Amino acid sequence: MKIYDRQKRQYIEAGQYGQGKLEFLYGSAVGRLLLKPVISPFASRLYGFYNSLPVSAGRIPAFVEKYHIPLGDYEKTTYRSFNEFFTRKRRAEALHIDRDADSLIAPADAKLLVYRVTDGLKVSVKGRDYTLGELTDNRLDMSGYGGGLCLVFRLCMEDYHRYCFIDSGRLTRHFRVKGRLHTVSSVSKDYPIFKENSREISVCETARFGEIIQIEVGALLVGRIVNHGKTSFGKGEEKGWFEPGGSTIVLLLRRDVAVIDHDITEQSDAGIETVVCYGERIGKRIHD
Question: Are 265 and 149 in contact (CB under 8 A)?
């Protein structure tokens, strides 16, 4: 898979964690028979329980070496389990939040694709059409989001799995949608993952971008999505974290509140994800 590194201004090849196993599950007849129990919440809980055991810490050294994890950037350097390592917290000095008042920042370390919301309140994500109602379980009035933006941040296993608020503001509504746990990688393209997967949906009134909707989407073997439950927050303040597994954050913005940086939209228009970091500027506010 080719992705764009905007810091180095070059394309890089990125593998998928567990690619062979995923291709077996989604691409073979036998695998598809096993798929239903694997994507169930029970399998996720079982996987999460194993990752909380001390024996799981034995996986950490090889993971750190393979993905070049800079342990010095984190509050701890030794961990009692893989789950404790996976949810590691960066030192404040290692967080680089763009504090410019007009900057739109990334909520997480991720690979970003930008989509336009049609006036009919639909968005086509990786070739599959969704209505905004499907994304939000038909529980919200989405009429104000026609012509807006849908930003999809895909977190890989090696990414930092804590995420933040993209602006200062207050939480006006939050709810959880129970569901399945398909992988969010390209091998699950035949499944409508953003309306089937478990997700947490937050409606926020922000200081500079008005009402936004942030959706944390669980994925294959994600133990839990953990939100702090804050009702007021600052820009770049931690919102929560994902436990082990790849995951996705979907950010919905109304029409004409922000413009995304050209290098990102150029890649998105070609179907190529851009690597972004927690707190990094990805666009800017449009003034009235």
Answer: no
Nearest to 11 by CA among 280, 271, 275, 269: 275
Take residue 91 and report the two structure tokens written for it: 């030192």
In the chain, what are the helix, strand and coil shares in percent, each to the nearest 5?
Answer: 25, 30, 40
From 215, 286, 216, 232, select the one nearest 254 (Cα to Cα). 286
Rounded distance, CA 241 to CA 149, Å? Answer: 23
Residue-wise pLDDT tens digits, 76-95: 889 999 999 999 999 999 99
pTM for the full predicted model: 0.87
Ramachandran angles phi, psi of 262, nearest 5°: -60, -40
pLDDT tens-digit profile of 129-143?
889 998 898 999 999
Given 103, 247, 261, 268, which residue is catalytic? 247
Q: Name the active-site residue from 56, 109, 202, 261.
A: 109
